[in-house]
Design brief:
Blueprint: E1 10-19, E2 22-32, E3 37-41, H1 48-56, E4 63-68, E5 78-81, H2 93-97, H3 99-103, H4 110-122, H5 138-152, E6 156-160, H6 168-181, E7 186-190, H7 194-200, E8 203-208, E9 213-215, H8 232-252
Parallel strand pairs: 3-7, 3-8, 5-6, 6-7
Antiparallel strand pairs: 1-2, 1-4, 8-9
Length: about 250
């Protein structure tokens, strides 16, 4: 695996993007702090996925710049987990986890296969490494996609609702796994779940309005994720965040 260096801050300046004839955001500025997890929330259709895709360099016809804090491009430093699992149906779960290396023409040796296998074990699929996607449930496929993202070992990680298709217990366990494995990375997570954001995030952002603007008026406790979802301070912040999201929905209609 090529060495990509320490996790950088990500700076978005003057971002402008329209979708379906609607202006999602205009002159949007954002700095995503280095080596921290930022959670992005907001109503459906406000532009959360579009902002994630813009950071990944996948948003067509967008304006603005995305770079690290020194102004350098992020090429080769991003791992991106989309909402859809995007597994290749003719490959096993193990080979889907390794697909990034294969697409880059890298040699996949025994060490890489062991690491991919270990990641599948950690997401609860140690007994399904040879299964193809058609033999896996939707939640299992999402766990393979998570393992594939973690396998990429990039300093910047973008995740679009990575735990949305999982049952409550598996979701809780994999949130903790992601928090552990992604420690020290610059992470941007889109989620619709306020409690998930409070459990995982060092920083919370709410995207709202047309065109959308960012609000950071509700922030998680200062301690390191993952936090206990039953903590009274976390539950109190969940109530505040739900109120803020309710206002965001009204502003976006």
């Amino acid at each position: 695996m090529e060495h990509y260096g320490k996790a950088p801050a990500v700076r978005i300046q003057g971002a402008r993007l329209a979708y379906g004839g609607h202006l999602l955001f205009d002159k949007l500025n954002l700095e995503i702090p280095a080596a921290r997890t930022t959670c992005l929330l907001g109503p459906s259709g406000v532009g959360k996925t579009s902002l994630l895709r813009l950071v990944a360099g996948l948003a067509a016809d967008s304006e603005g710049t995305v770079a690290d804090a020194a102004g350098r491009p992020l090429d080769g430093r991003i791992a991106y987990m989309a909402q859809q699992d995007l597994l290749l149906p003719w490959l096993s779960a193990l080979d889907n986890v390794l697909i990034g290396s294969r697409l880059r023409g890298e040699t996949v040796g025994e060490a890489e296969r062991r690491r991919a296998h270990d990641l599948l074990v950690r997401v609860g699929l140690g007994g399904r490494t040879d299964a193809r996607p058609a033999a896996l449930s939707g939640g299992m496929r999402q766990r393979v996609a998570l393992a594939r993202t973690l396998m990429e070992d990039r300093p910047v990680v973008l995740m679009d609702e990575p735990f949305s298709g999982l049952d409550a217990i598996t979701r809780y366990e994999l949130q903790a796994l992601a928090a552990e494995v992604l420690t020290g990375r610059t992470v941007l997570v889109v989620t619709h779940d306020p409690l998930e954001a409070l459990r995982l995030g060092h920083r919370l952002l709410v995207l709202a309005g047309r065109p959308a603007v960012l609000d950071d008026s509700v922030q998680p406790p200062d301690d390191a994720p993952p936090r206990d979802a039953a903590r009274q301070d976390v539950l109190a912040l969940q109530a505040r965040l739900l109120d803020r999201l309710s206002l965001a929905l009204e502003a976006t209609r």
